[in-house]
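Fold it.
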Amino acid sequence: MKKSIVISPDDSVGVALAALKKGETAEGVTLTEDIVRGHKFALKAIKAGEPVIKYGEVIGSATADIAPGEHIHTHNMKTCLEGTLEYSYNKRDIAPAAAGESRTVNVYVRRNGEVGIRNELWVIPTVGCVNAQARAIVEAFRKKHGDLPGTDGCFTYTHPYGCSQIGEDHERTKLLLQRMVKHPNCGGVLVLGLGCENNRMDVFRETLGDHDESRTRFLVAQEVADEIAEGVKLLEELYENAKNDRRVPRDIGCLKIGLKCGGSDGLSGITANPLVGRFSDYIASVGGTSVLTEVPEMFGAEQLLMDRAKDEQTFGKIVSLINGFKEYYQKYDQPVYENPSPGNKAGGITTLEDKSLGCTQKSGTREVCDVLFDGDSLTAHGLNLLNGPGNDMVAVTNLACAGCHLVLFTTGRGTPFGGFVPTVKISTNSDLAARKPNWIDFNAGGIAEGETFASKLAELTDLVVAVANGQQTVNERYNSRDIALFKTGVTL
């Protein structure tokens, strides 16, 4: 088993794949101190002020003279990033990809032709004031009807918003909830309101757009004597419509896959993220769709994404995506580069460039075909970028609301979180997978131990097919299902 790696021949650092001891030789240098797994060490002398290179790119600059074999981290390097920038379009030549092996998935076909990989019943509150009532309705319905044969269960997705919001926040809350109502993984949905909130039910219905009325019910709690009993009655109507749905075979290219990382470590950009990038390339090659979000974790790697834009219009949208998010930070007098997190740093990630260059490995190598902003839904096959923060719960909610059927979520530190679509947790290291089988669905750590990307890609593709066919993810088995709606403004 290799104990260290140099990712690019241009790099000035190596990365420990296992704990290394002072005095050991790694990548041709003698280590001057212990190096924790995932952390970096110098391959050559680096003078104060000189760039530090990883992934073949600058990840920061040295703040002190660094000797060969010395640990490189927050104590002796810093970010080189600044605020909003001017960018140029330098289109990279990307050879057309050969189509990957066709696979069949068994999915539910909805009235509008969209496909879903689950047939669930949902209760969605328009306002946080009725969260308890939503939970009570689901509990009473489950108690009465048991395992709900013919469906994949009944769930509610509560949140604290829907009232005392104005402007963008109010519109975003409404839009995201409307996207949930129409998500094809849902076989029937009860929209539950209070009656006096600013996310008014009449406006919500009027602006919902095309939807399957036979699969949608609306209930305003203030307008009925017993909202629990009335809610159960409406769910029973939805259940009658949904329980006879059956899966039908479709090509895997019908899937829309979200790409996310959280609790990253120094192996994220070496094992799990490049593996997911290979899956992103594969799904694009068979006519499918992948979506990369976490805009702040593109900072420092954004030019690489811009150079993969399919045309100048898409390039311009990526520039707006990046600088728009920087301006959001600056609007609130917050540092643009207050990242990585303490957990990331403990795992070996030093600067935002370091984190971003690892994070964007999930995007693979294909061209960026489109960029989505608030309220946009997926329309272009291939790799898409989606506006939103790095926060795990918000990002997965945004990906699902854009139309993703499931999310591939890489992690080096581990998290039990799951969204309202299946959330496949992929560990960057084998230790995490062994310690947390109640969190992790797939172990990419074997790549650091000698397994090939090709073999792990085949395994990951098999898992995606199984999940699309109905196999529960760990978050589904443990009922870790949450949403978080992005908020940028004031609360009244």
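The chain has a mean pLDDT of 96.
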